[in-house]
Amino acid sequence: MKAAAGGGGRGMRVVRSEADLGSALETASTEAAAAFKDGSVYIERFIDKPRHIEIQVLADEYETAFIWVKENARSSAGIKASGRSTIDCVIAPDASGNGEAAVVACKKLGYSSAGTFEFLLDRDNRFYFMEMNTRIQVEHAVTEMVTLADIVRNQIRIAEGERLGYSQDDLMIVGHAIECRINAEILKPLRPRQAASLLSIFRWTRRSG
To answer: 3-state secondary structure string, 51-112?
Structure first.
């Protein structure tokens, strides 16, 4: 159950049984009204411990290629508390079929540009569509590093009406890439907020390999 007028975890409740529905609805609606001046809520399927998968696509007016699967990982208490994903990594494709779904969607919509489809993947490898970002992603560099595809250059070429010049079969994963966004934050109970500060010490950890 989620607030219709906002997010960030406010006005959100997990309902695991019909007996809990009434109290959860009242609590979520009251919290939503206090936070967003609107007590409207909606109900959607709850996915326990999902993986957040993104499919980066390039589509011209003639054919579509999905670049590859990228997973947003959360790995620390600070990240979980703030609700922000700060680690992005390109992973090998799995058998869920969300990449194929993204390509089919591009063709059905007649979409032509760079873009990103976002899905949630459950424990049984079933995927659920969240949204599509019709733009270049800030994290596109991790994809470029392992596919050797220049997404920005290809987006410009597509805008000029040119063909991509390659198909999905031409794309390969070479090595691994991880991107970390470092945020200075002040975490307070239920009210995390970002705070700018001066980074005074930074030291690379050097390891062989």
So the answer is: EEEEEEEEECCCCEEEEEEEEEECCCHHHHHHCCCCEEEECCCCCCCHHHHHHHHHHHHCCC
What would the pLDDT profile of 143-171 be if each residue is shown by its tens digit? 888 888 888 998 999 999 998 877 777 77
Burial class (CB in 10 A: 0-12, 13-18, 19+), 131: exposed
DSSP, collapsed to helix, strand or coil, labels residue 152 as helix
Tokens of 144: 């470029």
Q: How far, in Å, CA of 200 to CA of 54, rounded?
A: 34
Spatial neighbors of 114 by CB under 8 A, at least 6 apart, are 56, 57, 58, 135, 136, 140, 151, 152, 154, 155, 158
d(Cα 15, Cα 27) in Å, to the nearest integer? 12
Q: Which secondary structure element, helix H or strand E, spans residue 115, and what is its range?
A: strand 113-121
Q: Return the active site residues.
A: 135
Model's pTM, two decimal places? 0.69
Rounded Cα distance, 18 and 129, in Å: 26
Q: Per residue in 179-188, pLDDT tens?
A: 777 665 555 5
Strand partners, 87: 73, 180
For position 190, what pLDDT does the model report? 47
